[in-house]
Amino acid sequence: MAQITLDGVNKVFGKNTVIPSLNLEIGKGEFVVFVGPSGSGKSTLLRLIAGLEETSGGRISIEGKDVTMTPCGERGLAMVFQSYALYPHMTVRQNMAFPLEMVGESKASTAAKVEDAARVLDLTRFLERRPSQLSGGQRQRVAIGRAIVRNPTAFLFDEPLSNLDAALRGSMRLEIMKLHQQLESTMIYVTHDQVEAMTMADRIVVLNHGVIEQVGTPQELYERPANLFVAEFIGAPKMNRIGGRIAAAMGAETIGIRPEHLRIVEGEGTWQGSVELTENLGAESHVHVLCGEAGSLVVRMAGAPSVKAGDKINLSPAEGFTYRFDHEGKALR
Amino acid sequence: MHSTPQQREGRLLLAPLVAFLIVFLSFPALVDIVYALSDVTFQTMRAPQIVGFRNFGVVLADPEFWAACWFSLRFGVLTAIIECGLGLALAIFLSPIVSRHGWTLALIMLPMMVAPSMVGLMYRLVLHEFAGPLPHYLTLWFGTSPAFLDANNAFWTLVVVEVLQWTPFAFLLFHVAYISIPAEIREAAAMDRATAWKILWRIELPMMKATIAIALGIRFIDGFRVFDNVFGLTGAGAGGSTMSLSIYIYQSFFKGGQIGQAVAASVLMFLASLVVLYGAAVLKAQLDRRRMAA
Ligand SMILES: Nc1ncnc2c1ncn2[C@@H]1O[C@H](COP(=O)(O)OP(=O)(O)OP(=O)(O)O)[C@@H](O)[C@H]1O
Ligand SMILES: [Mg+2]
């Protein structure tokens, strides 16, 4: 059963329509990730659900109740902000106790809940510190702790990890996933990092100019992208696209082949080209090849590159992994 | 003693500052101390007679000195509190308007642009018992008008004039502090179910605490040493009712020609401010230590 339902929700800032009209259902306990390029309306959509932004039209309901006009505090949601938004003049303990204090929870039960959350998030040692005395990762955990103590219907995250360095981002990602398993509560997570989206989500919502391009599991989005936008957005490096006669020969306006589905072959291949440059990432390499009519293609291969710049090589796509798109970018199946 | 190159360089860089302090501060200070300990008038300024602490004794025994101290203290504390209270309220209530229409800020700042002595003169005209328009119209409409500048009312008239002129200053400080609170903090508090009132008391005011302390301090100092607008409006006032410490010093210096006593009073004022500043620093250090310990 859907726990959060968006029904024809739209948002206009002045003359600027940010979200035209959007329908979405989010199930109980689901981990849903909104992805999309910068300015695609991810934050706006999240803030509409949170109640921090008024809808210009449409209905939002949570657990069957219409909350379109309900102020943000009363929707039973908790939000974790990109800047953490901790109260700088309060200790970690006071920060985490604040939402409980606001609903008049008793001192004893507040203390117990704060201690519990601190234990889960490994913050017990820092309870008496102020946010300014914590590292970025610790601050983020406090922000999550402040959300947990209220036991909300759903958690909303707006790019919570984007201020952290790569290593910390990786470990915090795991922590949030573990937390989701432990609490089994609904989480809506905004990111523009497709690795976060792919690894964390039960379902991904791909947004572009406020329009949902596709909703599905990470696997679905990867294997059966609904259109060129999703195909190019999911997967790194980006899908290769080829137009012109080669695509026309396959009855499409554009065809797409993922770099991992292109092979360097000995002898005769589908396309011939010369290596422009290679990127060695250790476990894998990306080889950029300039192939006459097919244009510039990227090949992903395991380990160190077996070719070097200037080499003449032959490429063949793996059988059955070529995506076809029509003139509007829609996938042809 | 050996010193590292950094220390030597540091001393070298400090030298101009030290020279500046010696020339501009220590010379007047030295003259001050000599005069404070001397019997000196305008005729004997170049040949002061050292008389020890007699001037201080005279000043401390002068009831007018204590009256002036009391006036300045009361005036400084009252105006600082009223200005900061009003400024804070305005900053919070007007913030939606001011942040949308920047030009309103210029309007609010206007009173600060006028020289305080001009403000004093202006109100002296406006409130004058016989010539002033305000008493005239009050009498016309209500049959009576308070004597704004007589001994009983002068203090409060001055407080109102000072508050009208300097509330914008407090407002400006608080406005800047208020708008620099990140929007996400307010949003987080709203998500945490804090009401607007709770957000004000639990989040915004505590975050503006440092600014509030600074504003109170600046406004107190400005009010305590008040001279020009009081001098322009009432002078020492009827029966010395509006004699601030600065006016006391001025009068005994220029009118009384008792240079030694005037300077002794200024030294006392300086010592008092040192004690207050030192006390504030000690208090802050103690609070910080208690917070660290907690
Ligand atoms: N308060 C506002 N007033 C006017 N326009 C706004 C406002 N907030 C957002 N927008 C516009 O709405 C669009 C979507 O913004 P939004 O912040 O939702 O994007 P986003 O997908 O979160 O981007 P990013 O990844 O950069 O955070 C942008 O074009 C932005 O300019
Ligand atoms: Mg955003």
Annotation keywords:
heterodimer, A: alpha+beta, Rossmann fold, OB fold (Dihydrolipoamide Acetyltransferase, E2P), 2 domains, 6-stranded mixed sheet, 5-stranded antiparallel sheet, 34% strand, globular, B: 294 residues, mainly alpha, MetI-like fold, two-stranded antiparallel ribbon, 2 strands, flat, binds magnesium ion, cell membrane (chain B), transport (chain B), MetI-like_sf (chain B), transmembrane helix (chain B)
Report how far apart the termini of chain B are.
42 Å
Could you give the order of the helices and strands of chain A? EEEHEEEHHHEHEHEEHHEHEEEEEEEE
Helix content of chain A: 25-40%
* Largest Cβ-defined interface: A-B, 24 and 18 residues
Order of adjacent strands in the largest pleated sheet of chain B: 1-2
Q: Outline of chain B, from the CA principal axes?
A: flat
What name does the CATH topology of the largest domain in chain A carry?
A: Rossmann fold
Q: From the helix content, strand content and strand pairing of chain B, which structural class follows? A: mainly alpha
Portion of residues in beta strands of chain B equals under 5%
Looking at the overall shape, the CATH architecture of the largest domain in chain A is 3-Layer(aba) Sandwich
CATH homologous superfamily assignment of the largest domain in chain A: P-loop containing nucleotide triphosphate hydrolases
- Oligomeric state of the chains in view: heterodimer
What is the domain tally of chain B? 1
Whole-number total of structural domains of chain A:
2
Radius of gyration of chain A: 24 Å
What does the average pLDDT of chain A come to? 93
Query: Would you identify the CATH H-level superfamily of chain B?
Result: MetI-like
Low-confidence stretches of chain B: none
CATH class of the largest domain in chain A: Alpha Beta
